[in-house]
Structures
1.
Amino acid sequence: HQLLREELPGAQVMIVSNREPYIHNLVEGKATLQIPASGLVAALEPVMRACGGVWIAHGSGSADRETVDSRDRIAVPPAQPDYTLRRVWLSDEEQDGYYYGFSNEGLWPLCHIAFVRPSFREADWGEYFAVNAKFAEIVVEEATCDDPVVLVQDYHFALLPRMIRNRLPKATIITFWHIPWPNSETFGICPWRNEIIEGLLGSTILGFHTQFHCNNFIDAADRFLESRIDRESGSITLGGRETLIRPYPISIEWPPSPLATQPPIDECRRRVRERLGLSSDARIGVGIERFDYTKGILDRMRAVDSLLSLHPGWRERFAFIQAAAPTRSKLSTYSSLQNEAARLADEINKRHGVRDWKPIHLVVRHHEQDEVYELFRAADICVVSSLHDGMNLVAKEFVAARDDELGVLILSSFAGASRELSEALIVNPYDTTSMATAIDRALHMSESEQRERMRLMRELVRQHNVYGWAAQMLIHAARLRKRERIMTED
Ligand code: G6P
């Protein structure tokens, strides 16, 4: 907040994202508040709480729009408001084409390279274009000046930066792409690749999690557009306007707010074991995420299977809890993953189960933040086995939850987080046996080694928290704004 006042005096801050930070769903006739499982929301909500402004997002809850909590414009967080949430309503057609279709059947598999064939349909593209234009309209409507600072979020809004630029030429537009950007051969599959790159180049700054993804984007612009590229400074100039392409590894708030209400570690350990009917000395591994094929959930279960075959001594002593929140279930790739996971869990449980003990506990539902933290705190190990991931904030949340400095993180080398959390046990999720070996090693790791690793990781997340992430982008934007002003005064 202070930084904003100093660096960007008087600036209005707006965020645009598809997912809203507060969803009001109708539960037993009452509007009930839910915080969605989304890395993007987890990262940006604390930033907005700190700096205030307007967050424009798709209104996705099932609660009646007339009820107080689900109006178009509400002050949030509901208990103690710091900023405004402006909801944009989408028709089923818009939602099918823009969200399920182009964003999640096209761009999501395209960028994650998770061996799910991307589907691109003309009609989806039409809705994607129209919804981006609709949000541009709302940004203009919500702007109280001609030069707001607009933070555009993610792959749902590749066209929005250029659309805002056309309407508000003086705006400072910072766009952040939360998922990977693939190499140019892969990206070139998209029939609207040029429009997407041009759209993103309406931004003042375009951020990715890693330098590698920045390079991939620069390569794609180089290959598909007539633009001027300066690789050294990481800038692309198109139609006389420059965009800076920069890495900003996203993070979480520190200290994490859900920790404030957590009971001591021993109590978390006791509660979770009791709930699952496990003995008090049972060892526990956890995996927690949206039920998404990019997360490597099946691969992780196969690793548990392999662990119990290679080291049967863990039978009846180790259990793996997979908490998975249903997501995008309307798409067949997602619903079939849920079925396949349930089938695989059953098969593994039959193979290794003994009396009423079973190795895999698959819990398919949304988990509230305090439940997630309780699981993290109760666990001996946490497995993040993404097949490809921009960053992965679950890895950072696990580390943040462990104020006892114990617990082992097993982390995929294909998640952006592995570049920062190098003290985790880094694994290749496609290699089941080596993942099984890593789980065995984690379960045998001495407390002193756990502590050494955990301390270093906690220090990194503490220093590079989400406020630093946002501040970096805002400081860069402020600098560019000042430079532009001086140039136009000249
Ligand atoms: C990823 C995306 C976010 C998205 C989140 C949850 O983290 O980068 O943009 O919000 O997944 O997915 P959903 O489709 O439920 O918003």
2.
Amino acid sequence: DNSTLAYSVGVTLDRFIKKKQDDFPFASGELSQLLRDIALATKIVNRETNRAGLSNIGGAFGQTNVQGEEQQKLDVIANIRFTRALTKGGEVCAVVSEEDDEVIDLQNSSGKYVIAIDPLDGSSNIDVNISIGTIFSIYRRVTPTGSPIQPEDIMQPGNQQVAAGYVLYGSSTMLVYTTGNGVNGFTYEQSLGEFFLSHPDICAPKTGKIYSINEGSYHSFEDGLKSYLDHCKRKEYNARYIGSLVADFHRNLLKGGIYIYPKTKKSPTGKLRLLYEANALAFIAEQAGARATDGKDRILDIIPNSLHQRTPLYIGSTKMVVEAESFLEVKQ
Ligand code: AHM
Ligand code: MG
């Protein structure tokens, strides 16, 4: 099949990025370099992630930190790794991160790009050795380079993304991204230190049989959503919920399914963040032929008004998302 073929002829991520860049002879190559910077940081975070279980027992095999520094949490480490790679790379002027309250101004006014990133999502899963992920969005700044960054460079709707991706640190590590021309997935070959094209041109099934939602909050869902979930049960769909957005999204993207993080009584706008969680996955979903809304409106058209703003998220196979929306409409 296609994926085995791609792997055997060895299309590395670097080669793939280069080939795509050659399709645009006038491109400066900065976006390509930026994607490579992200991939490098990903490899470092992957290494740290694999060691996560060992870090607490490091002393047992002579790995005690000589300075006696406290072990940093992996999500903090990931944030440092990504920010450092983006700073050193030189293409980026500002970073919005889940880990930082304010925008990080990289003081690089010649950088054309703005990044929104969740360096390590699903971090409650780290301690129990369950899949986690990184999510990123790339925007072109709208004000001229050479001048200080402005709020409008940061607060762009998702439909302005020039690229977006996620990394899944799962049984294998995968990087999946789009530049607005389809979605491609790369699997990490640890011993070679390379990502290989393993999932060319990902197309999401139009429908599926998996629904993913934290049903423990059922009683605080709106009535329409409750009815939709009852419908899923009548249909005997499979309930699958890892509690790691990237992992739940990735599975449903490949197999067909819907992921829902709705508004609840406690969180009236949901839990997930528009800028660095929902937008990137919505862009990838649409590029793969799937759908992403807040239950009503397209995620990518939401105009952000604050950095860490939340949004309900209905994302996955188009038919399933449309069906869920129809239940919300009727039962309001
Ligand atoms: P985090 O950014 O604090 O890690 O939270 C985001 C995570 C998502 O990965 C996951 O889908 C969701 O929170 C799970 O939340 P809940 O435990 O409420 O179901
Ligand atoms: Mg997160």
